[in-house]
Amino acid sequence: MANSIFEEKLGSNDFIVTTEVGPPKSVDVSEMVHHIELLKDKVDAINITDHQSSVMRFPSIGGCLVVKELGGEPILQMTCRDRNRLALEAELLLAYSRGITNVLCLTGDSVDVGDHKEAKPVFDLDSVQLLKMIRTLESGTDMGGNELKAVPHFCIGATVHPEADFIEPQLIKFDKKVAAGAQFMQTQGIFDLASLRRFMQYASQFKIKILAGIIVLSSAGMARYMNNNVPGIIVSQAIIDELAAVEKGKGLQKGIEIAARMIKTIREENLCHGVHIMAVGNEKIVPDILEAAELVNA
Amino acid sequence: MNVANQSYPENRSENASDHSLVPPCQDACPLHMDIREYVGLVSQGRIMEALQVIRTGNPFPSICAYVCTHPCEDACRRSQVDKPIAIRSLKRFAVEFGGDRMVRAEAETKHAEKVAIVGSGPAGLACAYYLKKLGYAVTVLEAHSELGGMLRVGIPQYRLPREVLNIEVQRLIRMGVEIRTDTRVVSLDLLFELGYKAIFITIGAHQSLRMGIEGEESPGVIDGATFLREVNLGLKPSLGKRVAVVGGGNVAIDAARTATRLGIKKVSILYRRSRAEMPADPKEVEQALEEGIDIIYLVTPTIIKRENKRLNVTCVRMELGEPDESGRQRPVPIKDSVFIEKFDTLIAAIGQAPQTPSDFGVRIGRGSTIQVDPSTLTTNRVGVFAGGDAVTGPATVTEALAAGRLAALRIDDYLQHRYPLPVKETKEKLGGDLLPKTIEMIKKIERVEPPNLAFEARAKDFETVELVYGWEQAINEARRCLRCGVGVEILFQDKCATCLTCLRVCPYHVPYLDVSGTIRIPADQCQACGICVAECPAKAIVLRKPFDRRQVTDELGHTIKSAAESKNKPLIIGFCCQYGLYGTGTLARLWRGAKAGVSIVPVLCVAKVEATHLLSAFKTGAEGVFVAGCGEQCARENTTYWVKQRVAKVRKVLGSIGLEPERLQVFALSSTAEDPAEELDKFVEQIGSLRLASVIKGEVKS
Amino acid sequence: MIVAEQKPLEEIRRMIAPYQRVLILGCGTCMTVCDAGGELEVSFLHNALQLAQARSGDVAHTFYEHTLKRQCDPEFLGLLDEKTADVDVILSLGCGIGVQAVAERLPDMPVLPGVNTSFMGMTKESGVWDERCAACGDCRLEDTAGICPITRCTKGILNGPCAGPKKGKCEANKDMDCAWILIYQRLERLQQLDKMRRYYPPRNYRPIPRPRRITSKAGTMAGEGNG
Fold first, then answer.
1. Closest partner CB to A126 (pick from C158, C164, C188)
2. What are the b/e assignments for C61-72, b being 16+ CB within 10 Å?
3. Which chain B residues touch C50 with a CB distance below 8 Å?
4. Does residue C5 contact residue C116 with C-beta atoms inside 8 Å?
5. Where does residue B136 fall: left (phi above 0), alpha (psi -120 to 50 degrees), or beta otherwise?
6. Is the pLDDT assigned to residue B590 strictly greater than 90?
7. How far apart are CA A238 and CA B487, in angstroms?
8. Is the confidence at residue B594, as pLDDT, over 50?
9. Cβ pair C33:B619 closer than 8 A
C-alpha cells in the first residue's frame, strides 16, 4: 500500500509534475499560502524548500503543514546542514504524525553560500545516510538502535545532477542513493536535454522515477548570476544566448517559453518520468508554464 | 704588528665571530690579498676604502696593478658563470682613482738590529718595506745604478711606467730605508762585519739560459734578459731590420714587443710548441699579435751562421709528442723539415737562472737557485735568508713580493729570538665548483674590459697599453663579483625549526635537506643575497661576516642617533642600496642636494632590509620611509620582490595604527619606470602634504 | 603541524591595554614554521607595538621578548621562571595549547593569546598553508585514497560529492578543490573505485568527547588510565 498519494502516482505510468514553493523570511505566510493554493491542484506534489541556498527562512516542515491544511500533497525537503541525527529523526516523527510522508533527502548547501555564514555547519549525516536512516526508522528502530513504539512510513527521494561537469562521482553517488532506498529523483536544473538523455540512458537500469528539474530563468543576467553563485547550477551558453537576445522586460516571458518547450519535449519524447519545476521566487508563473507546456489538465 | 695576516681592519677585532671563508681569488693570490673586500668596496664606489684594503695586503699595489699575472682571475668562480672578474683592472682603478701616489707610509726605527738586503727587486723592496714598518734599520744594496731589479731592468716600460716604480722607491726612501746603489756585494762576511745582524739575499735570476746550439756565440745573438736590461737602462741596441725572438714566455713576448717599439718592422717569435702551451700571459700574446708581431709556432733554431753581417738561422719544424714531466706535450723534430731563415738579430729568451757568487757561501740547488727552508727562508748560513727569483727561479712579481714579506717576518722572528711558527690561516677555504642549478640562476653580466691604447699608437713608443677604467665601468665590473664565502650560515642550529623557508625563498636553489633531514646551506653555493636571513622565522640564519650581519641595524642606528642629536626629527628615512651606480650615482647626486629632513640609511642591497628595520625607521618619528634598490639592475635575483613583500607587511601595521600606507614606498630601477629622482621628489612632496594634513587635523582636534 | 595566524594588531593592543610590562613569548616549533609566532614575528610584533605606542601616545608599555623552543611542554616553560619575575602579562604567540600550558605553569600570571590557532595543515608554498587533518580520531584515509573528506570537504560528508562542485572546485570556496573529485580521481588511478561505491554509515563521534587524552605508556590498559 502506498504511503502517500504521491507515491501512488509514482507507481503509475503517468507523467509526473512537481514544483516547489520557497517559504518566506517572515512570520507572514500569506504569499506562500497563495502560491500553494494556486498550485496544489495543478501539480502532483509541492516541495517546500529547506532554507534554500542556506538562507534562513520559515521551515520546510511548516510549509508542508500548510500544504497539508490546504489539501495539497507536500514533499518535505530535508537537508543535513542544520540538524544532527537526533533533530532529523525527531522532525521525521513530527512529519509522519501530521501526514507528511514524502521526503526529499538532501545533503544541503554549504553555509558559506547563505546569509548565516558564521553558523556551525552540522552535516552529521549526508544524503545517503539520511535515506538509510529513514529506512531504519521504518524498520522500527532509531539510529541509536532503540525501538520505536509506533513506526512511520515514508516515500523518499533524493537529487541527482545530470549536468555536473564531472559526472562520474555523481553517478556513483546516484547508485548509492538508489541502493539506500530512494524511490524518486528530482534532478538539479536541466538546461541541455542532451545531458538528460545521456543520464537517462544510464539511470533507466534502475527501478526509480526521475523527474527532470526545470529552472525558470528571467534574464541572461540571472542565468550568469546563478552560474557564479548557486551551487550545482550550470546554465548552458545556448540558453543564456537565447535569453540575451530578447528585448528588455521580455526575459521572463522567454524563460517561461524555454521552460515550457523543454517540458513539452521531455514529455513528448518520453525522456524521463516527469518534471520538477523550480520557479525560484516566481511561483505564480508556474501555471503559465504548465499551460504553455500543455500540462494544465494535471 | 701581524703584517702577513693583515686584512680589512674591521674583521681583525672580530675574528671570533667572523665565519667568512677564504675565497678562491684570495687563496690564489701569493700575497693573500682581500680581493673580495676591495672589489666589493669598488662596487659601492668607496674607492678610498678599497685602496686602503689593497694597501693593507700589498706593499706596492700600483706596481701589481700593472704587472700582476692575476692568478686570482684564473681562480675566480665567476668564470663558471660567464667570465672572471677583471680584478687587476679594478685594482688599477682603485690605485689611480684612490690616489695611491699620495699615500705616505711612515715608520719608526724601534730596534737596534740592522738588516741588509742584497738586491732591490720586488722581493727586496717588499722585505725592506715590511722590515722598516716593523721598526728595523734597513739597507738595500743594489748592483745597478737604480733600484727595482727586474721591475727596472726586465719589465718593459709600456707594461710598467717607470714613474710608478719611482714613486714606490721614493716612498721607501721617505720611510727611512737606506739605499746603496752601484754596490755589488761580493761577501756576506763583510756585511756581518759592518754590523748587520741579518741578511736577505734577493738577487733575482738574471742569467739567461743558453740554447746550446751551434753559433750561439755569434755577434747578433743576444739573450733576452740582457736585451731588455739594455733597453730599460736607456741604451738603444742596434738590431738591424729583421729580429727573431726564441721562446714562448713573458720575457720572449716582452723582448719582441720592445723590439717593435725600437722601430723594428719585422719581429718574429719562434716557439717550439703551439699557442696553447705558451707560458706567456694570453693577453700579452694577444697584444703582441695586434702589434704586428709574427709568432711562428712549432719551430726551433738548430744552427746559427753569421754571413755578411746577417744571421742564417737553420730551423726545424716540431710536432707535439708524449707529455713531459711538466704535463705539456714534448716537442719532437719532424724529419726533413729543416729550413733556413735570415735575421739581423736573434734574441734568445728561453729562460733565466740566478747567478749567486760562490763567496756568499750559501748552498746552491737545482737550477742554480739558493736552497732555503721554504717556511722560514733561512739558508744554510745563520742569519742569512734568501727569497725571490734567486730561490724559485723566474717567477712573478707578486710571488716575489710575498717572499719579501715572508722574509721580513722571518727575519723579525730570528732577531727577536722567536720560534718561527708558520702563519696559520684561521679561516676555512671556500672550494668546489658552483652547481649547474646555481649557475643557471645567476644573472649573466658581461665582463667590462678596460680600454687599450689603440695599437697604431703603441708601437711608436713605450706608453702604457692598458688604460684605466672609467668610474661607471669599474663599478659595473665590480658588481659582478659573486662574493664567494661571505654568504649565510645557519648559526643557530638549535633555533632552526627546519621550516624550509630558506629552501623555498632562495633564488639560487642553494639550501637543501640532507639525508638525515637537516637543512644545509652550502657555503660554496650561497650567493650572499641575504633574502633567507630576513625571511627566516626563527632568526637562525646569519651572514657570515659580523659587519654584514649588523650593517643595516648599525647604519639605521647612526641615522637615528644623529637625528636625535640635531633635534631635528627626520622627515623621511630612505634605505638606499649602495651597490652599483644607483647607490653611488643617481641617489647620491639627488640627496647631496641636501633635501631637508631626508636621512639616508646606506644598505648593501635592499634584500637585507628587514620588516623590523622599516618599523624602526617609523619609530624614530619619520613621516615617510622608502626603500630604493637597483631593481632590474640588481646583480642578484628577486631582491625587489622580497622587499615588496616586507613593505606590504609593514604597510598593514601602518594601516592598523592609523598611518597612511603610502608613507612607505619602494623605488626600484627599471627600464620602464620614471626617473628615480623624479619619483623620489614626488614622494617627498607627498609626505610633506601628509604631515601638513595631520598638523591641521591636530589643530582642529585641540 | 599546527597552523595559526597572528591576531590583528588592534586586537592585541586592546588586550594588553591594562598591563604595563608585557612579555611577548614566541614558540620555536609550529608557530615558527607557520610564520605566526617565531622569533622573527616576536621581534616584528614588538616593533609594531612600540611604533603604535609611539604614534598614539597611549599607555607606555614596556615590552620584553623571548622565544621558547616549545611552549607546550612544562619543562621548557621552566626556563621562563626568571623572565617572568618582572612582567605583568605574557602575550603568548604559541598556539592555543601553548597559551594554556603557560597559564597552567604560571597560576598568578595573566596570559593572552597573540595568535588565532587555525588548523593542522601543511605548507603549500612559502607563506601558504592548507588544512589537512581535523583530528577526528577515526581516520578513514584508507578508504579515501589518502585524501581526507572530513577536513577537505566543506561538509565533511562520507559518501561522495554533493551536487555543488563546479570545474572541480568547492561550492563554498572557488579556490579550493572538491575533495571528493580528488578522491575519485585518485581512487580511479589506484583502481580502487570500489571503495567509493561502498556505503559509509554515519560517523561515530564517540572517539571525540572533549577533551581527549592519549597515553602511550606501556602497561596502561583501557580503563586503567589516570583520567
1. C158
2. bebbbbbbbbbb
3. 615, 619
4. yes
5. beta
6. no
7. 61
8. no
9. no
Query: Using an 8 Å Cβ cutoff, are B247 and B211 in contact?
Result: no
Decide if A125 touches C, using CB distance below 8 A: yes
Q: What is the DSSP string of A39-101?
A: HTTTSSEEEE-SSGGG---S-HHHHHHHHHHTT--EEEEEESSS--HHHHHHHHHHHHHTT--
Report the DSSP beta bridge partners of residue A105: A78
Length of chain A measured in residues:
298
CB A106 within 8 A of CB A127: yes
Task: Please write the tens of the pLDDT for every residue from B662-671.
Answer: 999 998 877 6
C100 interfacial to chain B (CB closer than 8 Å): no
Torsion, CA A48, CA A52, CA A55, CA A57, rounded to 10: 0
At what angle are helices B35-43 and B87-97 packed, to 10 degrees? Answer: 60
CB contact under 8 A, B537 and C32: yes
* B132 touches B117 (CB < 8 A): no
Domain extents for chain C?
A: 2-119, 134-197
- Contact indicator for B664, B651 with CB cutoff of 8 Å: yes
Could you give the CA distance from residue A124 to residue C203 in angstroms, rounded to a whole number?
Answer: 7
Tell me the pLDDT band of A281, cut-offs 50, 70 and 90: confident
Is A246 part of the contact surface with chain C (CB cutoff 8 Å)? no
Three cell numbers at A220?
541572461
Q: Residue B46 to residues B98, B405, B450, B584, C190: CA-CA distances in angstroms?
A: 9, 27, 19, 9, 64
Average pLDDT of chain A, as a whole number: 94
Q: What 3-state class would DSSP assign to A139?
A: coil
What is the DSSP track for chain C?
-EEEEEPPHHHHHHHHTT-SEEEEEEESSHHHHTTSSSHHHHHHHHHHHHHHHHHHT----EEEEEEES-TTSHHHHHTTHHHHTT-SEEEE-S-HHHHHHHHHH-TTS-EEE-EEEEEEEEEEETTEEEEEE---SS--TTTTTT--HHHHSTT--SSS--S--BTTB-SS-TTSBPHHHHHHHHHHHTT-THHHHS--PPP--TT-PSSP-----TT--TT-S--
Q: What percent of chain B lies above the pLDDT cut of 90?
A: 64
pLDDT in tens, B363-391: 999 889 999 999 899 999 999 999 999 99
Task: State which fold the C2-119 domain adopts.
Answer: Rossmann fold (3.40.50)
Compute the distance between CA of residue B693 and CA of residue B689 in angstroms, rounded to an integer. 6
> With 70 as the cut, is the pLDDT of residue B581 above it?
no
Q: A231 to chain C, minimum CA–CA distance in Å?
A: 4
C-alpha A145/C-alpha A139 separation (Å) is: 11
SS (H, E, C) B474-524: HHHHHCCCCCCCCCEEECCCCCCCCCCHHHHHCCCCCCEECCCCCEECCCC
Rounded to the nearest angstrom, the gap between the alpha carbon of residue B185 and the centroid of all alpha carbons in its chain is: 35
Nearest-CA distance from C26 to chain B in Å? 10
pLDDT at B106: 82
Structural domain boundaries in chain A: 5-292
ipTM (interface predicted TM): 0.89
Residue C207: the pLDDT is 67
DSSP H or E stretch at residue B93: helix B87-97
Residues facing residue B533 across a β-bridge: none
Distance, in Å, from the CA atom of B423 to the CA atom of B428, rounded to the nearest integer, reads 14
Provide the pLDDT confidence category of residue B595 given band limits of 50, 70 and 90: low
Cβ pair C43:B501 closer than 8 A: no
The CATH architecture that domain A5-292 belongs to is: Alpha-Beta Barrel (3.20)
Q: Are B572 and B521 in contact (CB under 8 A)?
A: no
- Judging contacts by C-beta atoms under 8 Å, the chain B residues touching residue C38 are 497, 499, 537-539
CA distance A102 to A94: 13
Q: Which of A80, A164, A175 sits opposite C197 (nearest CB)?
A: A175
